[in-house]
Design a protein that fits this description.
Layout lengths: L1 H20 L2 E4 L5 E3 L5 E5 L6 H8 L2 H7 L1 E2 L4 E3 L4 E10 L5 E8 L5 E8 L2 E7 L15 E7 L4 E9 L4 E2 L3 E4 H36 L2 H20 L2 H5 L5 H26 L2 H4 L1 H16 L9 H28 L5 H22 L7 H51 L12 E6 L7 E8 L2 E9 L4 H21 L8 H16 L5 E9 L4 E7 L5 E3 L5 E3 L17 E5 L5 E5 L17 H11 L4 H16 L7 E7 L4 H15 L1
Helix pairs in contact: 4-5, 4-12, 5-7, 7-9, 7-10, 9-10, 10-11, 11-12, 12-13, 13-14
Amino acid sequence: MKIKLLQFTIIFYILINSLFSQEKIIITSNKKIYNALFNSYIFYDTEKNFQFVQIQEFLFNKSKFYRYFSLMKSHLIGFYKGRLWIYVSLYNNKKQSIKLYLLIAPWHIDKINVYEIYNKQIKIVNLGDHYPFSKRNIKSNEFFYSLELMPEEEKILLLEIESTSSIQLPLTLFQEDSFITYIRNNQLIYGIYIGMIAIMCLFNLFLYFSIKDRIYLYYVSFLFFLGLTILSITGYAYEYIWGNYPYFAQIVNYILENLTIIFAYLFMIVFLDIKKINKKLYYLGIGIISYLLISKILIFINNILLINKMVLINLLISSFVMIIITIYGTFKKSPYAKILLISWFILILSIIIRILMDFSQLQLDYHYSNWAILVGSALDMSLISLGLGYRFNSYMIKSKEYDMEIQFAKDIQKFILPDYPFIKLKNYLTYLHIPPRGLGGDLNCFYVIKNHIVIIQIDVSGHNIGTAVISALVKGYIEQIIQSFREKDQIKELPEYIINHIYGFIKHRAESHHLSMVISLIDLFNKQTIIARCGHPYPILISKDKKFKILETSGSIIHPKLFIEPEIKTFPISDGDTLYFYSDGLFELDIFKNKDKINEIEICEYLLRINHLLLNEIIKDIYIKYKNIYNKIHLDDISIIIFRYDEALLKIIQEEIDIIKDTL
């Protein structure tokens, strides 16, 4: 029994002495960087019951010291609601004085109170995000404390730490030259990283303004907030941007990381064209975005610990859903899904490493958390840029093909638009047609049959290649009908005949299109016009005595699945009367106040003001007003036909009938 007791005493004595020997960090001339972690002691003050005065007593009472303090085993503390007390003892074994820099914590720690104890003298320095950056004794994004040791001098540092964010305490000690090297290397690496983001933002912003593809705007927004998030979590944003706003520094990570995820989702949805691949996944992505937007309300609660935890939880949930959507896109053979999957996987892996370290579930050197996000996001950006480059190349190839098709459609439209064959009629019949981007859906036709002038205005739905082709086919179909009526006596049946046959054409040959139209058969001998209208704006008649009349006739648009035959009406015309036919694009001009609804009265009042002019001057006035806003917004076709009746027309038509036949 006595032997066992003696053995226990010897073992206990050895352990106590080994603990005492670990209390000091001895500074020698052959080392530039010291890992102070395993020579430091920690006390977890869970209920925050102890103050500095009590802790100071423990430092000189070994029994109390070892009762409360234990040797640190890891720099990762994680989320901790209590207060931490860290004991570090330094001894200068060199023959000259030395300046040291202790890296206490990398970034966001709320409060770090440093007590430097020497010969019963105490120096106190306050660090942490709860204090403005300008009050730090060393202007760095990380928390450093500097001190000077004289030859064979020993000093004790007591660190009091509280934080609502995850706590990492690398406790690395630098001599002056190694400290300068460390700071310079960090600044160089982060400078390269931010420069890379800035270049990619500017380049993709240039692409957005060049080709107007919103995906580049989403990508630039993603890059911008990702870069700002990295600057924020590494403390550089606090150093250079919002260092005088401590509270904002506590919640800004939550805002920035949410915005980064939101734009990452918007980019992914467009990049993979998720809406076409799977609408459920599309709405899942929209749901995540909505959740992130709604969850921003947390910044208004006074619980920073909950906010910091929600940052990591949101990252984890969003990353998981993001990977699922991208994997699904890969299986559906989305052309860019594989590139995005690899890039997302690298970025999300780095995010998971950070989350596990923040929750102290993964014991790695604290630098790994930093470099993981940095390297992961850099690789992610590089791979996505390659994917965007491949997408841009495909876009350029398709754009060239599309331009060729557009040019072909424009050539068709130029062919079907009427020239001015009416040599003697140019002062009595004119028109203006300006399609948006040179390609529209309006069609204007003029014909002379015996003593009649036929005016037809058609608006085919759409402004694309298919619209131009349909317009060309309709024009050809009308030409055949007109030619067949040149030999008939029942010319008054022409409007009804054209409408019925155009409906049959649309129903059986152009099911994806519909059209509106108006036909005016002007009988010059009997001074009247027959109007047939199918969903088109009403023609307007302005008399020589400055009175206007809206020629209202009922009729639906010509649609493959819905068509009601129009009401055909006859209206008298007199010498000096002017007929106006126009497409609905006229309502979009800024000369009219009520653009949200059709208002023929405003158009009548405007035309009445300029009706006294010659026809070409009226057209010029309308064109100038159209041109002023043509480059501001994308408009519908502007199509105007003007006919002015004069008794001399009958004689002019008789004289020029041969020319008209040849040119038509």
